[in-house]
Specification:
Helix content: 40-55%
Strand content: 5-15%
Mean pLDDT: 93
CATH superfamily of the domain at 3-134 and 214-258: P-loop containing nucleotide triphosphate hydrolases
Low-confidence stretches: 1-5
Number of strands: 11
Bound molecules: adenosine monophosphate
Largest sheet: 6 strands, parallel
Structural class: alpha/beta
CATH class of the domain at 3-134 and 214-258: Alpha Beta
CATH topology of the domain at 3-134 and 214-258: Rossmann fold
CATH architecture of the domain at 3-134 and 214-258: 3-Layer(aba) Sandwich
Number of helices: 9
Length: about 260
């Protein structure tokens, strides 16, 4: 049978959008759960970055750049068009998956409405919106405590987290104490290669503050909307990562267990 619904790669699929503040642990959790349940992840930000890198459409590239470089949301029409095309392609490549994780979409109420319309068109189900609730002071501490090795950016630490903290502070050459940076912060050394650790521009307190204000402005109404429609699963994101995973699984597991095998 070749009806339009059987041709559609999203018919009958379960969608799990994840929402969390910056540094809320969304990347870690989506990666674990995507592998555990064979739910491919569609990542909106990475899709934009790939389009810009590819550069096949210079006008689109310039448009995306102008918003992304200022930490602003890309206009809804552009986002939805790119989402639809690329997400349908991902679904077509993964016919055996019961569903998909959405990372970074929807991010505002008008995007949520667009997703609801698309779900109807595809006959897909928005299963649950997984919201990792992490207090603002915790995400601020995560961001402002992060330090990168100046020699190898894969060596990442967090001076505000005992488990992730580097071992040594950098001592002044004259031996009179710990070296401090221009902002008066103590300078640490990489535990692996002893290189100086640095704070990324993105993690400077004023930048972090700006990003969180922007996040609340766009996301608070989205959360309120999904809470009202009872499509929200609120997870305490201020726990050890494995506890957060367990909490999310108590929501996702029963839904996936009940889903028909495709
Ligand atoms: P991310 O990788 O999620 O941090 O996204 C990087 C940037 O892409 C954001 O700062 C926005 O400019 C843009 N972006 C990502 N997702 C969306 C979205 N759903 N709507 C609008 N803009 C987005």
């Amino acid at each position: 049978m070749t009806t339009s619904s059987t041709q559609n790669p999203l018919t009958g699929k379960l969608l799990f959008p994840f929402v969390a503040p910056p540094n809320g642990g969304k990347g870690t959790q989506t990666q674990i759960l995507s592998e555990r349940y064979n739910l491919p992840t569609f990542d909106m930000g990475s899709t934009f970055r790939a389009i810009m890198k590819e550069g096949r459409d210079p006008q689109l590239k310039a448009e995306l750049e102008s918003f992304m470089n200022n930490g602003k949301l890309v206009p809804v029409e552009t986002v939805v068009k790119i989402f639809k095309k690329n997400f349908e392609a991902l679904a077509a490549q993964n016919p055996e998956a019961k569903g998909f994780i959405l990372d970074g979409f929807p991010r505002s109420q008008d995007q949520a409405s667009a997703l609801a319309t698309l779900c109807q068109e595809w006959q897909a189900t928005l299963a649950k919106v997984i919201y990792l609730n992490v207090p603002m002071d915790v995400v601020k501490a995560r961001a402002t405590g992060r330090r990168f090795c100046s020699q190898d950016a894969r060596h990442v630490y967090n001076v505000n987290d005992a488990k992730l903290a580097p071992k040594y502070k950098k001592m002044k050459a004259d031996g009179t104490g710990v070296e401090v940076d221009a902002q008066g912060r103590e300078v640490w050394q990489c535990t692996l290669d002893e290189a100086e650790l640095i704070v990324r521009a993105d993690d400077e307190p004023q930048t972090v503050e700006k990003r969180l204000v922007e996040y609340s402005k766009e996301t608070d109404p989205l959360i309120a909307h999904y809470r009202q429609t009872q499509e929200l699963a609120e997870i305490n994101g201020d726990q050890a990562p494995e506890k957060v995973t367990q909490s999310i699984e108590t929501v996702m597991h029963p839904i996936l267990a009940l889903a028909p095998v495709s």
